UniProtKB/TrEMBL annotation:
PANTHER family reported in the protein's UniProt record: BLL7171 PROTEIN, BLL7171 PROTEIN-RELATED
Family: Belongs to the YciI family.
Gene3D superfamilies linked: Dimeric alpha+beta barrel
Domain (YCII-related) ranges: 14-105
Protein name per Swiss-Prot or TrEMBL: YCII-related domain-containing protein
Organism per entry: Nonomuraea polychroma
Length: 115
């Protein structure tokens, strides 16, 4: 099952003083086990562009759409047997302590044939 793992900042990170896990080790381990299919850090929110269409009019604005202190700073596309395995992968990511991780399964949509 595929999961999108959003890597986010958090205004209340873990206060444990132990060293964070090494991100390069996390990537290498999950790549080698075939659980991480893709992933990348995102550029700063100051580079974001929000696109909307309202009543047929294109609206483009600089910056992220949401006004929040927590932001998505990266993503990883996971292939896991189930949610429990995805949680285990997310638990060991450094940002699980320094920020937060959101796991979201891909929707199981029926095949749609194009005309």
């Amino acid at each position: 099952m595929k999961y999108m793992m959003f890597v986010c900042t958090d205004t209340e990170p873990d206060t444990d003083k132990a060293d964070l896990p090494d991100i390069d080790t996390w990537v290498a381990e999950n790549d080698a086990r075939g659980r991480r299919l893709d992933g990348h850090e995102l550029a700063a929110t100051t580079t974001a562009t929000t696109v909307r269409v309202r009543n047929g009019e294109l609206l483009v604005s600089d910056g992220p759409f949401t006004e929040t202190k927590e932001v998505i700073v990266g993503y990883d596309l996971l292939e896991c047997a189930d949610l429990d395995e995805a949680i285990e992968v997310a638990r060991t990511h450094p940002m699980a302590r320094a920020g937060r991780i959101e796991l979201r399964p891909f929707a199981d949509l029926p095949f749609r044939q194009r005309d």
